[in-house]
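Section 5: illustrative case.
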């Protein structure tokens, strides 16, 4: 449909919506009556194409794009039901809304046509009262079609977004252990298809490592009972039996009245990070044992030489202290570097920060106790290579267009006024009604470290 501005009396103008319609009807009298009825509609300007046979109508559909089709049942070369079969696509759907026109003796046929894809029907009474209802019914059918197209567009855009984010995105109900009602295709890293993960409601809980189930369950119950964010590190078994570590963070989504609806979150694979932690712990243990042995040896040597040279003994003690401090400082630096991960912030629809992980604290150099509840634009000072600011990106993401923004190169001004090159994603998260409820921000340094 398009809009045309039509001049009216004086200087007033009215905007009429242009509708291209196809009337498939073999009775010329009925075609003339329909054309007159549509011409009298005050809000729509109908461009009406007419066909008196089914084949002629099918050819017009092949040559033109129509907003709706008005279809009679009795045609010279086929029935209305056969016509519907001809315009049904490979997926069993009819893309153009069809309004069935039928006689008083064909109500059952009209119902059958609805089952086969027609959107509505009108009974052609002998007094012609159906012509008075025809424009209103077409208007309703076109409105429903527009809503379906907008819903399909929003679903496709959200699906494209979650498929690009390098994490598992999910939505859980707040009942029992949390039944999944949505999961992104990244769940295939565990060896399961999204449809399988959703259909088998207990599959998610069963794949959690047995020793971690109580921990996950307690964290889930706490979020369900208090409405606070869910955050937990736990192990998951893949279909092939491999064990992977995940960091799972989610927020409770509520309706306008504050009623908790579902849990929406992301899962990050931290298996490599956990492996590094274990290796560093083992290395630290061996290093501490080495230091203890060497310290004991030096202390014995110092004890033997104290009587000969007290100054030398003091120097050795001083060197040992410096050695221990230096090695511990080196080890502490290695541990901190190995724990670096993507910074994650969750921002509500009002632009306030509701979640901030430790990596974000380190990257932005601000504690979560100071950042939570504050506007994102006050905490995050960021400028994209194309000149976009945080306020620009937030407005774009939280607008009705549901647009996500990928930053391949940006400059972050940290709390210590030091700039850092970063990249990341700003992605709006929607509820079941397609409304934006929060903004997910993922950032990581472009250089591979956090600039500490």
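Designed sequence:
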């Amino acid at each position: 449909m398009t809009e045309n501005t039509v001049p009216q009396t004086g200087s007033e103008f009215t905007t009429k919506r242009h509708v291209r319609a196809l009337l498939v009807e073999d009775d010329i009298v009925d075609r003339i009556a329909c054309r007159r009825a549509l011409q009298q509609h005050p809000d729509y300007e109908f461009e009406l194409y007419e066909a008196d046979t089914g084949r002629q109508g099918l050819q017009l559909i092949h040559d033109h794009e129509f907003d709706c089709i008005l279809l009679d049942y009795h045609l010279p070369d086929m029935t209305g039901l056969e016509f519907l079969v001809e315009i049904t696509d490979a997926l069993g759907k009819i893309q153009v809304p069809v309004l069935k026109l039928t006689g008083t003796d064909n109500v059952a046929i009209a119902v059958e046509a609805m089952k086969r894809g027609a959107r509505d029907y009108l009974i052609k009474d002998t007094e012609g009262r159906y012509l008075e209802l025809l424009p209103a019914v077409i208007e309703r059918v076109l409105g429903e079609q527009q809503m379906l197209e907008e819903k399909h567009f929003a679903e496709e855009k959200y699906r494209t977004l979650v498929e690009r984010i390098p994490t598992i995105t999910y939505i859980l109900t707040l009942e029992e252990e949390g039944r999944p009602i949505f999961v992104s295709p990244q769940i295939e890293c565990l060896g399961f298809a999204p449809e399988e993960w959703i259909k088998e409601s207990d599959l998610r809980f069963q794949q959690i490592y047995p020793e971690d189930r109580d921990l996950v369950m307690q964290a889930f119950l706490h979020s369900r009972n208090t409405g606070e964010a869910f955050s937990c590190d736990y192990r998951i078994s893949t279909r092939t039996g491999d064990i992977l570590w995940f960091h799972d963070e989610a927020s409770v989504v509520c309706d306008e009245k504050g009623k908790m609806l579902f849990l929406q979150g992301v899962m990050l694979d931290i298996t490599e990070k956990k492996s590094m932690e274990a290796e560093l712990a083992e290395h630290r243990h061996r290093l501490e044992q080495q230091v203890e042995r060497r310290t004991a040896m030096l202390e014995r040597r110092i004890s033997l030489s104290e009587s000969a040279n007290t100054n030398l003994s003091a120097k050795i003690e001083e060197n040992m202290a410096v050695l221990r401090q230096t090695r511990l400082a080196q080890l502490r630096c290695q541990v901190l570097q190995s724990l670096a991960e993507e910074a994650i912030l969750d921002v509500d629809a009002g632009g306030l920060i509701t979640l901030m992980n430790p990596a974000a604290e380190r990257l932005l150099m601000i504690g979560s106790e100071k950042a939570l509840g504050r506007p994102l634009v006050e905490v995050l000072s960021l400028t994209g290579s194309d000149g976009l600011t945080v306020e620009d990106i937030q407005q774009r993401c939280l607008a009705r267009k549901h647009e996500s923004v990928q930053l391949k190169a940006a400059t972050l001004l940290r709390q210590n006024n030091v700039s850092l090159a970063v990249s990341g994603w700003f992605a709006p998260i929607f509820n079941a009604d397609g409304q934006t409820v929060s903004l997910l921000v993922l950032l990581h340094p472009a250089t591979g470290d956090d600039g500490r």
